[in-house]
Amino acid sequence: MTWLTSFPQLKSAWLRELQRVIDDGFRSFTRSHGDMIEGLFSPLQTMLIWFERLLLGTPWLLVLAVVAALAWGASRSLRVVIGSVLTLVLIGLFGMWDDTMKTISMVLAATLLSIAIGLPLGILMARSQRVQRIISPILDIMQTMPSFVYLIPVVMLLGIGRVPGLIAVVIYAIPPMIRLTNLGIRQVDREVLEATDAFGSSAWQKLVKAQLPLALPTIMAGINQTIMMALAMVVIASMIGVQGLGQPVLRAISNQYFTLGLFNGFAIVGIAILFDRISQAWGKRLQKHQEASHD
Amino acid sequence: MTDPATTDPATTDPIGIEIRNLYKIFGANPEAHVAAVRAGMTKAELQARHQHVLGLSDINIQVAPGSIQVIMGLSGSGKSTLIRHINRLIEPTAGEIVIEGRNVVAMPQAELRAFRRHKTAMVFQKFGLLPHRTVLDNAAYGLEVQGIPQAERYRTAMRWIERVGLSGFEKSYPSQLSGGMQQRVGLARALANDAPILLMDEAYSALDPLIRYDMQTVLLDLQQEVRKTIVFITHDLDEALRIGDRIALLRDGSVIQQGTAQDIVLRPADDYVANFVQHVDRGKVLKVGAVMQARHGFDAPEAALPDAALPDAAIAPEASIAEALQQMAASRLQALRVQDPQGHTIGVIPFQAAINAYTGQHGGQHDGQHDGRQA
Question: Is B142 at the interface with chain A, CB within 8 A?
């Protein structure tokens, strides 16, 4: 009667054999195709290094000026501009400028990649029920699977460094981009779409002239979410060799440097708020036609 | 005389629409039930036995070039479904829609798109404007889709924006305009397309009565200029009677009566229609021409008339019987001579006939009227 008291499980020999077969299979796949796959991802490596050099090579005054200009362009609000500049100045004063630039370059690259992949996927998903049924559970897995788990195969394939880090960040950060693009397009008023149909719009014209512009506020919310999640992954990605604010945090954990951890943590919070305010303000300004409503 | 469409194919520009044996069944397997519906299965039976909804049943409507065809019915009668078949926003289950010799139902996608771009334009109940675009860009949308360069489409769109009375608002966004103004944008967008067919799906139903009346006037004035073939959907009988050259009454997906406003008010096909028209202001809707006793071209007129002597006072056949009654009351006459624009006497309208028509009483004179209208 042991099957009543303890859950009947497969024989442990079977389980061990199963694990061994899968592991061996993947290992041999890595050995035979690892170089080829690494070669495939080398453009990402180039892009990442280019971004990092750009941000680190630019004089800090110029970086501040560009950030201020972006903040003003997006929000037209002096408060956001001052807040952004002040955050970066404080980060610099506390000696975290270089790490911050590395993190920002990583987050920017991850966000751009997420948009480049997520936008078309979201559009496809909105256009077809079947694609939605396939992609939705995959997104669920991506969002709930602990990131350490998918770091294992990524590291096995690509080793340690920027590219596997970027891939891990993108896997974690892309779901809101896809989901909100899909949602935004599906929420576009049917009556408006019917009107574009009635005037003989092609599928592309309908997408570019009606669906995307009307879904833009939702898509912007997706981009905002993606940026925030990419930042949240910075510390975890530092475990597989991504440079930036995550590294000192990691060091602080293993050596119990409370203050070092706190400073870098606040730096991450600071740039998170900066990114958030700028991207949200921009998203709002994109829909200024909805502000002035008739009464 | 009440139907300029059939008697007056004045210009070659407008094109007609012919809807033939059109069926629309909603459900999982609509094709399977067409035969049963053709054989006479009712909407209720189809619903109860096969869980399919009969949207449209055996619709046959001919819209003459350059005329205004009103399709009228209460909600759920299938009128909005019907108008969406004309530019195939909804696919029919069976039947044909023939425009310029081409069956719209059978058009391949590319041809259908070209057809929608160049032959039809549509105005929607909830306007269907693009909220992120200015009035100007909305009005130019149809032209933009056709690939017309910006300067030219703005010029055309501006002309129509001015024509519908929205000058000065071209840079506004739809949300900044009132409902009536938004529908003017919808109308400008449709007219800028310069398509020969204009489809108006309850275009004025969302507007309040005064603005609605105003927009009807705008449409009738425009129609004098541009002579489109207009299909106009409404649930409002007064609107239908005011603007329709011909009216088709829809109930449960079937046409229960079609004809001119006079036909429908004078001779309702069944109790349902009679019930519908009983609250109409007959004095305004009915025209002298439809009620008068006609004087046949070569017959001895006196024989057909109750009184041998024709009265001196004359009235036009397009005048309403309310006007005729007013004129008779003012000058204390028992009858008026009906005179066409060329000055020929075409009939006579006795006081009693006008009163009977006004109150909806069916007097003996009606036989005479029938002859009159068919002449």
Answer: yes
Q: Residue B244 maps to which CATH number?
A: 3.40.50.300
Mean pLDDT over the full length of chain B: 84
Question: With DSSP H G I counted as helix, E B as strand and the rest as coil, what are the percentages for chain B, rounded to 5?
Answer: 45, 20, 35
* B314 and B203 within one domain: no
- Beta bridge partners, B96, equal B20
A133-187 pLDDT per residue, tens: 999 999 999 888 888 888 888 888 888 888 888 988 999 999 999 999 999 999 9
Domain A23-286: what homologous superfamily? MetI-like (1.10.3720.10)
Between residues A2 and B57, which one has the greater pLDDT? B57
Amino acid at B222: L
Instruction: Read off the pLDDT of residues B122-138 as tens digits, 9 standing for 90 and up.
Output: 999 999 999 999 999 99
User: What's the count of helices (H) and strands (E) in chain B, helices before strands?
Assistant: 19, 14
* Residue A27 CB contacts under 8 Å (≥ 6 apart), including other chains: A156
What is the sign of the dihedral through the CA atoms of B96, B97, B102 and B106?
negative
- Does A240 or B144 have the greater pLDDT score? B144
Task: Determine the average pLDDT of the residues in B259-272.
Answer: 87
pLDDT at res. B9: 35
How far is A94 from chain B, CA to nearest CA, in Å? 45
Q: Is A202 on the interface with B (CB under 8 A)?
A: yes
Interchain contact A1–B (C-beta under 8 A): no
Helices first, then strands: H and E counts in chain A:
15, 0
Residues 101..140 of B with a Cβ closer than 8 Å to A: which? 113-118, 120-122, 124, 126-133
Q: What is the 3-state secondary structure (H, E, C) of B56-101?
A: EEEEEEEECCCCEEEEECCCCCCHHHHHHHHCCCCCCCEEEEEECC
What are the structure tokens assigned to B241, written together? 């009677």
Tell me, rounded to whole angstroms, the distance of Cα B229 from its chain centroid: 10
CB pairs under 8 A between A and B: 81
Percent of chain B's residues with pLDDT above 70: 89
Contact B335, B350 (CB under 8 A): yes
Q: Contact, B118 vs B107, CB < 8 A?
A: no
Instruction: Looking at the complex, report in whole angstroms how far the Cα of residue A277 sits from the nearest Cα belonging to chain B.
Output: 23
Spatial CA neighbour of B137 closest among A196, A272, A277, A271 = A196
Say which of B114, B173, B199 has its CB closest to residue A200.
Answer: B114
Regarding an ipTM greater than 0.90, the answer is no
Q: What is the pLDDT of residues A25-37, one digit of tens each?
A: 988 988 888 888 8
The range of the structural domain enclosing residue B253 comes to 4-13+63-119+195-280
**Is pLDDT of B10 > 80?**
no
User: CA-to-CA distance for A230 and A238, rounded, in angstroms?
Assistant: 12
Domain count, chain B: 2
pLDDT of residue B363: 45
Euclidean distance between CA atoms A29 and B360, whole angstroms:
91
